[in-house]
Specification:
CATH class: Mainly Alpha
Distance between the termini: 7 Å
Largest sheet: 3 strands, antiparallel
Oligomer: single chain
Number of domains: 1
CATH topology: Arc Repressor Mutant, subunit A
CATH architecture: Orthogonal Bundle
Radius of gyration: 12 Å
Order of helices and strands: EEEEHHHE
Helix content: 40-55%
Number of helices: 3
Number of strands: 5
Amino acid sequence: MNIKKNIAISDSGFLFNPSSGDSYSLNPVGQEILKLLKDDKSDEEVVAYILKNYMTDKDAVEKDLYDFKNMLENFKLTEDE
């Protein structure tokens, strides 16, 4: 999944899509996931990072990552591969 290059993310979790003018708020975990995806990390790398840094289980992380990526696609924040 490729996140659009022009998407801006502030340190406070504010995400702005200049193409559409839409803005969104991300929680701290969402911020980290989005930054990892923008750095072209694989799903496995994202899951491993979250498991290393947060007290959660693999099934929950995988489901939440799948849901998050679907949300990004629905809001047109990704590029066609």
